[in-house]
Write a structure and sequence with these properties.
Elements: E1 22-23, E2 34-38, E3 44-47, E4 56-59, H1 76-96, H2 101-112, H3 132-137, H4 146-164, H5 167-176, H6 178-183, H7 192-211
Parallel strand pairs: 1-3
Antiparallel strand pairs: 2-3, 2-4
Helix pairs in contact: 1-2, 1-4, 2-7, 4-5, 5-7
């Protein structure tokens, strides 16, 4: 299936992100709706409310239900210590591969809470939760190795952004698989987990972008 041409999207970073996005003053939180609006200059804006005629609802908000995975080993202190430990690695790989470091940080936090030994029920492993097939694709021999994991994860995320020319769809594909995004007409699949994931990463991205200078 060939995706129709999309409007130009604002550049977020002085690097690879030719497919960026603008976060409006009312930018989406992890629980909010996500609306997309393309202005007269072709810039894509994301907000938690419609911004004018032609606004498109990408993801409908949902109240958060606390899960068992939110407790236990991944305490705030544990996450903060690991985040400090791996920030330099994330920044270096993001810079080398020309991807916004704040976006990568947001994905790592959403995926593993900076736990290099995290393993999901589906079998995804490490900081960026690589599935075995993804790890093999990028030549990873040890998914628990932080450097190998982050390098492969950033390569995969960059590949998805290039493929879909849209950060939101790339995040959805990172979670649900690129075929799911294609099968649903190049939209975020209606899976609760994927829609929650996209909202969470965008909210975390906004936090990091306001805290750190974009790379």
């Amino acid at each position: 299936m060939h995706r129709p041409p999309t409007p130009a999207i604002a550049v977020m970073a002085a690097g690879y992100l030719a497919a960026g996005l603008m976060l409006a003053a009312g930018a989406p939180s992890a629980k909010a709706d996500i609306w997309r609006f393309v202005d007269r200059n072709g810039v894509v804006n994301l907000s938690d409310r419609p911004m004018g005629p032609g606004s498109e609802l990408l993801v409908r908000g949902k109240k958060r239900v606390k899960k068992a995975s939110d407790t236990g080993k991944r305490t705030p202190r544990y996450r903060e210590e690991n985040e400090k430990r791996y920030t330099r690695l994330i920044d270096r790989v993001s810079r080398e591969l020309s991807l916004d470091r704040n976006l990568v940080r947001a994905v790592v936090r959403a995926e593993s809470a900076f736990d290099p030994n995290a393993v999901s029920r589906a079998g995804a492993v490490g900081l960026m939760q690589l599935m075995p097939a993804t790890a093999r694709r990028y030549g990873v021999s040890d998914s628990r190795n932080p450097a190998q994991n982050v390098y492969a994860g950033v390569l995969h995320l960059r590949k998805l952004i290039r493929q879909f020319n849209d950060v939101v769809l790339a995040l959805a594909a990172y979670n649900a698989g690129e075929n799911a995004v294609i099968d649903y007409g190049y939209k975020v699949p209606p899976y609760p987990e994927t829609q929650t994931y996209v909202r969470k990463v965008l909210a975390l991205y906004r936090q990091y972008a306001s805290r750190y200078k974009r790379s």
